[in-house]
Amino acid sequence: MLNSVTNYFSEFKVLKSASKDFWLTNAIQFFDGLAYFSMITVLALYLTDNCGFNDVNSGVWVGIFTLYITAFVFAVGSICDTIGIKKSLYIGLGLLAVSRGILGFAPAYISSYGIKHTAESIFTRFGVTNPPEFFLASDLAWSVKAAIIIMALGTAFMGPVIMTSLRRFTSKDTRATGFNVYYLLMNIAAIIASAIVIDGFRRTFGPVQGNLAILDFGFVMSICAVVCASRIDEDNYAEESERVTNQDENRRPLAIFMEVWREKAFQKLLLFLTLTIGVRLVFTHQFLVMPKYYTRLLYSDFELGLANSINPTIIVIGLIILIPIINRYSTIKLIIVGMTISAASLILLAIPIDWVMSLPGINNLTQAYLFIIVTQILVFAIGELIFNPRFMEYIASVAPQDRVSSYMALSALPTFISKPINGFVSGILISRYCYDGVRPKIETGNISYTDSPEFMWMIYLLLAVLSPIAVIALRNFITSEPAAATEATEDETSKPDQKGADHE
Question: Going by fewer Cβ within 10 Å, which terminus of the chain is more open, N or C?
Answer without folding.
Answer: N
